[in-house]
Design brief:
Layout lengths: L1 E4 L6 E5 L11 H12 L4 E5 L5 E3 L12 E6 L4 E9 L14 E7 L4 E2 L1 E6 L11 E6 L12 E6 L9
Parallel strand pairs: 4-8, 9-11
Antiparallel strand pairs: 1-2, 3-4, 3-5, 6-7, 6-10, 7-9, 10-11
This protein binds zinc ion.
The site of zinc ion has 8 residues, from loops.
Length: 165
Protein backbone atom coordinates (compact mmCIF):
# COMPACT_ATOMS: atom_id res chain seq x y z
CA UNK A 1 0.00 0.00 0.00
CA UNK A 2 1.32 3.41 -0.99
CA UNK A 3 0.28 6.18 1.39
CA UNK A 4 0.52 9.95 1.15
CA UNK A 5 1.18 11.46 4.57
CA UNK A 6 1.09 15.00 5.90
CA UNK A 7 4.70 16.09 6.34
CA UNK A 8 3.96 17.98 9.57
CA UNK A 9 1.68 15.59 11.44
CA UNK A 10 2.40 12.26 9.75
CA UNK A 11 -1.30 11.67 9.27
CA UNK A 12 -2.29 9.56 6.28
CA UNK A 13 -4.03 11.80 3.72
CA UNK A 14 -4.53 9.29 0.91
CA UNK A 15 -3.48 5.84 -0.17
CA UNK A 16 -3.56 3.68 -3.24
CA UNK A 17 -5.34 0.37 -3.13
CA UNK A 18 -7.63 -1.75 -5.22
CA UNK A 19 -11.28 -2.60 -4.85
CA UNK A 20 -11.94 -6.15 -6.05
CA UNK A 21 -15.02 -6.00 -8.26
CA UNK A 22 -16.42 -8.80 -10.37
CA UNK A 23 -18.84 -8.27 -13.24
CA UNK A 24 -20.77 -10.76 -15.28
CA UNK A 25 -22.57 -9.55 -18.36
CA UNK A 26 -25.13 -11.65 -20.16
CA UNK A 27 -25.42 -11.72 -23.91
CA UNK A 28 -29.16 -11.02 -23.68
CA UNK A 29 -31.98 -13.16 -25.07
CA UNK A 30 -31.10 -12.78 -28.75
CA UNK A 31 -27.33 -12.82 -28.12
CA UNK A 32 -27.56 -16.04 -26.13
CA UNK A 33 -29.61 -17.73 -28.86
CA UNK A 34 -27.04 -16.55 -31.42
CA UNK A 35 -24.09 -17.91 -29.40
CA UNK A 36 -25.85 -21.22 -28.68
CA UNK A 37 -26.49 -21.61 -32.40
CA UNK A 38 -22.83 -20.91 -33.21
CA UNK A 39 -21.89 -23.69 -30.80
CA UNK A 40 -24.10 -25.98 -32.91
CA UNK A 41 -22.44 -24.76 -36.12
CA UNK A 42 -25.35 -22.59 -37.22
CA UNK A 43 -25.83 -18.87 -37.85
CA UNK A 44 -29.27 -17.64 -36.90
CA UNK A 45 -31.08 -14.39 -37.55
CA UNK A 46 -34.20 -12.75 -36.21
CA UNK A 47 -37.35 -12.08 -38.22
CA UNK A 48 -39.80 -9.34 -37.37
CA UNK A 49 -43.30 -10.61 -36.71
CA UNK A 50 -44.80 -7.42 -38.25
CA UNK A 51 -42.67 -6.15 -41.15
CA UNK A 52 -40.74 -9.37 -41.82
CA UNK A 53 -37.27 -7.84 -41.67
CA UNK A 54 -34.62 -10.53 -41.22
CA UNK A 55 -31.52 -9.40 -39.33
CA UNK A 56 -28.19 -10.85 -38.27
CA UNK A 57 -27.01 -10.86 -35.52
CA UNK A 58 -30.54 -11.41 -34.21
CA UNK A 59 -32.37 -8.76 -32.20
CA UNK A 60 -35.23 -9.19 -29.75
CA UNK A 61 -37.03 -6.18 -31.24
CA UNK A 62 -37.12 -5.04 -34.85
CA UNK A 63 -34.92 -2.01 -35.56
CA UNK A 64 -37.34 -0.85 -38.27
CA UNK A 65 -40.73 -1.02 -36.52
CA UNK A 66 -39.87 -2.01 -32.89
CA UNK A 67 -42.11 -5.11 -33.01
CA UNK A 68 -41.06 -8.38 -31.34
CA UNK A 69 -39.08 -10.77 -33.49
CA UNK A 70 -38.65 -14.51 -33.83
CA UNK A 71 -35.03 -15.54 -33.24
CA UNK A 72 -34.91 -18.85 -35.04
CA UNK A 73 -34.22 -18.06 -38.68
CA UNK A 74 -31.25 -20.09 -39.82
CA UNK A 75 -29.10 -18.60 -42.57
CA UNK A 76 -28.29 -21.35 -45.01
CA UNK A 77 -27.05 -19.23 -47.87
CA UNK A 78 -23.51 -18.03 -48.39
CA UNK A 79 -22.57 -14.49 -47.50
CA UNK A 80 -20.63 -11.91 -49.44
CA UNK A 81 -17.77 -9.69 -48.38
CA UNK A 82 -19.09 -6.14 -48.12
CA UNK A 83 -15.89 -4.60 -46.70
CA UNK A 84 -12.35 -5.81 -46.03
CA UNK A 85 -9.34 -4.77 -44.00
CA UNK A 86 -5.98 -6.48 -43.61
CA UNK A 87 -3.75 -5.75 -40.63
CA UNK A 88 -0.21 -5.12 -41.90
CA UNK A 89 1.18 -4.08 -38.50
CA UNK A 90 1.29 -6.09 -35.28
CA UNK A 91 0.46 -4.85 -31.78
CA UNK A 92 3.86 -3.24 -31.31
CA UNK A 93 3.71 -1.44 -34.64
CA UNK A 94 6.08 -3.88 -36.34
CA UNK A 95 5.34 -5.09 -39.84
CA UNK A 96 3.67 -8.50 -39.96
CA UNK A 97 4.96 -10.99 -42.56
CA UNK A 98 2.37 -11.64 -45.30
CA UNK A 99 1.51 -15.22 -44.28
CA UNK A 100 0.69 -14.08 -40.72
CA UNK A 101 -1.48 -11.08 -41.61
CA UNK A 102 -5.08 -11.23 -40.49
CA UNK A 103 -7.85 -10.07 -42.79
CA UNK A 104 -11.17 -9.02 -41.34
CA UNK A 105 -14.32 -8.49 -43.31
CA UNK A 106 -17.89 -7.36 -42.97
CA UNK A 107 -20.01 -10.18 -44.32
CA UNK A 108 -23.59 -9.62 -45.43
CA UNK A 109 -26.29 -12.03 -46.57
CA UNK A 110 -28.72 -11.44 -49.42
CA UNK A 111 -32.12 -10.30 -48.20
CA UNK A 112 -30.83 -9.99 -44.63
CA UNK A 113 -30.25 -6.72 -42.77
CA UNK A 114 -27.06 -6.28 -40.75
CA UNK A 115 -24.01 -8.50 -41.08
CA UNK A 116 -21.06 -9.94 -39.23
CA UNK A 117 -17.48 -8.78 -38.80
CA UNK A 118 -15.09 -11.71 -38.66
CA UNK A 119 -11.85 -13.13 -40.03
CA UNK A 120 -11.73 -13.77 -43.76
CA UNK A 121 -9.91 -16.99 -44.52
CA UNK A 122 -8.74 -16.99 -48.12
CA UNK A 123 -8.59 -20.20 -50.08
CA UNK A 124 -5.91 -20.43 -52.70
CA UNK A 125 -3.42 -17.78 -53.69
CA UNK A 126 -5.74 -14.96 -54.61
CA UNK A 127 -6.48 -12.41 -51.91
CA UNK A 128 -10.11 -11.95 -50.94
CA UNK A 129 -11.96 -9.05 -52.53
CA UNK A 130 -15.11 -7.14 -51.77
CA UNK A 131 -18.01 -8.98 -53.38
CA UNK A 132 -16.48 -12.45 -53.03
CA UNK A 133 -18.88 -15.16 -51.80
CA UNK A 134 -17.91 -16.65 -48.45
CA UNK A 135 -19.10 -19.54 -46.30
CA UNK A 136 -18.85 -19.85 -42.50
CA UNK A 137 -16.04 -22.04 -41.20
CA UNK A 138 -16.60 -23.42 -37.71
CA UNK A 139 -14.14 -24.75 -35.15
CA UNK A 140 -14.33 -28.52 -34.50
CA UNK A 141 -17.31 -29.37 -32.24
CA UNK A 142 -15.13 -30.30 -29.25
CA UNK A 143 -13.47 -26.84 -29.32
CA UNK A 144 -16.68 -24.78 -29.37
CA UNK A 145 -17.52 -22.82 -26.22
CA UNK A 146 -20.58 -20.75 -27.12
CA UNK A 147 -18.38 -17.88 -28.28
CA UNK A 148 -18.10 -15.81 -31.46
CA UNK A 149 -14.80 -17.68 -31.90
CA UNK A 150 -16.73 -20.95 -32.38
CA UNK A 151 -16.89 -19.48 -35.86
CA UNK A 152 -13.28 -19.34 -37.03
CA UNK A 153 -14.21 -17.00 -39.83
CA UNK A 154 -15.60 -16.95 -43.33
CA UNK A 155 -13.85 -18.82 -46.08
CA UNK A 156 -13.77 -17.55 -49.61
CA UNK A 157 -15.10 -20.10 -52.04
CA UNK A 158 -12.32 -21.97 -53.77
CA UNK A 159 -13.18 -21.05 -57.34
CA UNK A 160 -11.52 -22.39 -60.41
CA UNK A 161 -10.10 -19.42 -62.28
CA UNK A 162 -10.04 -19.65 -66.04
CA UNK A 163 -9.05 -16.08 -66.95
CA UNK A 164 -5.87 -14.13 -66.32
CA UNK A 165 -6.94 -13.37 -62.78
ZN1 LIG B 1 -40.34 -4.85 -38.12
Amino acid sequence: MTAVTDAGTGRILAWEDGIPLHYEYTAGVAGEAFLRALKQGRIIASKCTRCGEVRVPPRTYCLECQERTRIDIELFQSGRIAALSTAHLGKGGTKTPAPLRATFGYVTFEGVAGGMVHRILSEGRREARVGDPVAPFFAPVEQRRGSILDLKGFRTAAKRRTGND
